[in-house]
Amino acid sequence: MYISSALKKAGFPVRGALIKKDHVLKVFEKYKPVYVLYSVITGEHKECLSLNGKLKKRKDFFSIFGGPHATCCPEVLSQE
Questions:
Q1: Would the N or C end of the chain have less CB density within 10 A of its end CB?
Q2: DSSP at 10
Q3: Beta bridge partners of 39
């Protein structure tokens, strides 16, 4: 949420959503984002990395990982 707030303040259009797993691809294709932000909690980090890989196969974008797990264990992001 902090990153989203900073982007909004800088004038970037931001769309945020909690998306059900079966709707992620539909929403991704609709908005074709330039940036995709993830709030990662421990236990879901592998799923976020997997999802990011699947989305990257469809479109090039910049990934930003934040949240408790990304903050405490930044080395997990090198597994992408």
A1: N
A2: T
A3: 66
Considering only CA atoms, which of 51, 42, 35 is closest in space to residue 74? 42
Q: How far is CA 28 from CA 31, 37, 43, 53, 75, in A?
A: 6, 12, 23, 13, 26
pTM of the model: 0.78
CA-CA-CA-CA torsion sign (23, 26, 30, 34): positive
Q: Is residue 18 pLDDT above 90, yes or no?
A: no
Q: What tokens does 36 get?
A: 């995709």
Sequence-separated (6 or more) residues with CB below 8 Å from residue 29: 58
Quick one: which H or E segment has residue 3? helix 2-9
User: Can you tell me the distance from the alpha carbon of 67 to that of 43, in angstroms, rounded to the nearest whole number?
Assistant: 12
**Residue given tokens 């959503």 in the structure block:** 17
